[in-house]
Design goal:
277 residues, alpha+beta, Bactericidal permeability-increasing protein, domain 1, 8-stranded antiparallel sheet, two-stranded antiparallel ribbon, binds 2-acetamido-2-deoxy-beta-D-glucopyranose, To_sf, Protein takeout
Length: 277
């Protein structure tokens, strides 16, 4: 349904050691799609414009931009098959946990509350609201949560209401085919939640259904503490998801299409630091 407007195979040249030319082909948009509203960073109301533009763009991503569907997949539900491994140590938890075969629901209803770009270093900051996010997957866990010793493996869900995500994105600008692109180098999130519900099946390797039920009840009664225990795992899951999405988006779409007057990276950083691949 969504038509590709101007995806081209273009070449970028890299001067390596000042002598060797390396030519690489990368697919990206060379014409601005109509669903992207451009904003000007050196004009007033930039943040207001970019917030509106980002929301419109995300709506399009949710509906399905073919090139992103191909590289990233659908937004809602969204699959994250990679294994997550995290050792979390805090007052409320000492756990080693793996989440796999994750299915993430809720990004289809995302509200962009604010979208900013820093004028000095072109880092991005977004405030995103999800009425609900739900993670379904398989877990493997060893450790303690809220002083409950755990050793189990099975199905898990974590459902979060009123999730506010503050996203900080580090970028480095680079040139490709006469356009300026964002290289996304780091994504960090801060999560703020309204309410959390959870269920972990097979908590004690199935030894006692009764204890499993009462433990899940205990986690739900103490959901704030449960969330604090799981925060590193959930934050990392959201960070990895956004990193993947932003990288694929900004590999495909020049930064100029979003920020029309973004400076040329050669001028911003000085020519000698530029390596374009
Ligand atoms: C999680 O996966 C890692 C890497 O495969 C493994 O070393 C670790 O023991 C696993 N943790 C649990 C709790 O199964
Ligand atoms: C960019 O600058 C802002 C404020 O000047 C700062 O808070 C932020 O950490 C900087 N980001 C990077 C990636 O250096
Ligand atoms: C983007 O940044 C990463 C890490 O800093 C670097 O390895 C990579 O070459 C950069 N990509 C481009 C296209 O500049």
């Amino acid at each position: 349904m969504m038509r590709l407007i101007g995806l081209a195979w273009a070449t970028a040249v890299c001067w390596l050691l000042g002598a060797v030319d390396i030519v690489e082909s990368v697919a990206y948009f060379t014409e601005k799609p109509s669903y992207i509203e451009s904003c000007r960073i050196y004009e007033p109301e930039f943040t207001k414009c970019l917030t509106r533009s980002t929301q419109k763009f995300m709506n399009e991503v949710i509906n399905g931009i073919p090139e992103l569907l191909e590289s990233f997949g659908p937004m809602d539900p969204m699959r994250q098959d990679q294994l997550t491994f995290k050792q979390a140590n805090s007052d409320v938890a000492t756990i080693s946990a793996n989440l796999t075969e994750l299915l993430i629901r809720g990004f289809g209803n995302m509200v962009i509350k604010e979208s900013k770009v820093n004028k000095n270093n072109f880092s991005l900051q977004d405030k995103i609201y999800l009425p609900q996010m739900r993670l379904d997957g398989k877990y493997k866990m060893v450790g303690h949560i809220l002083r409950v010793p755990l050793r189990g493996a099975g199905k898990i869900y974590i459902e979060i209401d009123d999730l506010n995500i503050l996203v900080n994105v580090k970028t480095r600008l680079y040139e490709k085919g006469g356009f300026t692109f964002y290289n996304v180098t780091d994504v960090r999130v801060q999560l703020d939640v309204g309410k959390v519900r959870t269920n972990l099946e097979n908590l004690f390797n199935g030894r006692s259904k009764e204890v499993e039920r009462s433990t899940n009840q205990f986690f739900n009664d103490n959901w704030r503490d449960f969330f604090e225990a799981m925060r590193p795992l959930i934050s990392e899951t959201v960070e990895r998801t956004l990193m993947d999405l932003l990288k694929k988006t900004f590999d495909l779409i020049p930064a100029n299409f979003f920020v029309e007057d973004i400076p040329n990276s050669l001028e911003l950083y000085g020519r000698k630091t530029q390596m374009i691949t």
